């Protein structure tokens, strides 16, 4: 019980720290400054009917401010019933994503995994379509058009470069797929994570229908890149 209390306190402080860091100038190069917007301005840009691909794998690496701003936009709307959200992630996420969007009552589809009580309540009441599936199938199903295509990707990153390199924080999940397929991309730049994380990931999207194995034989093999890259317009908060 004492450990759980300390864990919750640490998480609370980390969230406060990450929210403060969005306005820090320590990592804001000229390119990032040219793309900066507030979470509220980004929320206003999101379509009323949206398929949203978000970073995150368990409560790690998920966006924490844009979903809340979007939820407030819905709640303050004169016609909240106009909104409809399909939410794709890597797995379950925290309350700042799964919880705030679930409480709007406008979630219509959730994949591929969840563990949030508010989402579970909607599923059990028949108010939310949920597909519980293995993460390894999600990218293929989206890329083949079996699931609705991605309108918007909201991804947490520790750094973004002018040539479109997006360095993720402490999860990879489905982020590379969402970045590759989304029509619009919004990045939450979280400076609570050190730049040393830029070498953490090995990001690789295999071709469809090749049947070839992924060429990893040893635990230290790397076949991809440490970043995702996109030429699509990026907006950063």
Structure overview:
One of its GO terms (molecular function) is acetyl-CoA hydrolase activity. By secondary structure, the chain is an alpha/beta fold. The protein has a single domain, classed as 3-Layer(aba) Sandwich (Glutaconate Coenzyme A-transferase), CATH 3.40.1080. It contains eight helices and nine strands. It has helices at residues 2-21, 30-35, 39-45, 66-76, 95-102, 117-124, 135-143, 175-181, and strands spanning 49-54, 84-88, 107-111, 129-130, 152-160, 165-168, 184-189, 228-229, 234-236. Strands 1, 2, 3, 4, 5, 6, 7, 8 and 9 form a nine-stranded mixed β-sheet that branches. The model is unreliable at 1-11 and 13-25 (pLDDT under 50).
Provide a quick synopsis of the model.
By secondary structure, the chain is α/β, with parallel strands linked by helices. 32% of the residues lie in helices and 18% in strands. The protein has a single domain (25-236), classed as 3-Layer(aba) Sandwich (Glutaconate Coenzyme A-transferase), CATH 3.40.1080.
């Amino acid at each position: 019980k004492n450990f759980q209390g300390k864990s919750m306190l640490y998480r609370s402080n980390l969230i406060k720290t990450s929210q403060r860091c969005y306005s820090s100038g320590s990592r804001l190069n000229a390119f990032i400054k040219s793309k900066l917007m507030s979470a509220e301005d980004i929320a206003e840009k999101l379509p009323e009917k949206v398929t949203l691909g978000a970073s995150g794998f368990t409560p790690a690496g998920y966006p924490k401010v844009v979903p809340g701003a979007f939820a407030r936009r819905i709640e303050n709307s004169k016609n909240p019933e106009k909104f409809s959200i399909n939410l794709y992630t890597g797995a379950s996420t925290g309350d700042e994503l799964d919880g705030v969007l679930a409480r709007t009552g406008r979630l219509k589809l959730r994949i591929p995994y969840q563990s949030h009580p508010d989402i579970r309540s909607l599923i059990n009441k028949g108010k939310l379509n949920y597909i519980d599936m293995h993460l390894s199938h999600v990218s293929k199903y989206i890329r083949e058009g079996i699931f609705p295509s991605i309108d918007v990707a909201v991804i947490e990153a520790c750094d973004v470069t002018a040539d479109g390199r997006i360095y993720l924080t402490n999860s990879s999940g489905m982020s590379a797929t969402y970045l590759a397929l989304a029509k619009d991309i919004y990045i939450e730049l979280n400076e609570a994570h050190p730049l040393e994380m830029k070498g953490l990931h090995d990001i690789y999207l295999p071709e469809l229908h090749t049947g070839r194995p992924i060429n990893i034989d040893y635990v230290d093999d790397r076949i991809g890149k440490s970043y995702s890259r996109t030429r699509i317009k990026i907006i950063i908060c």
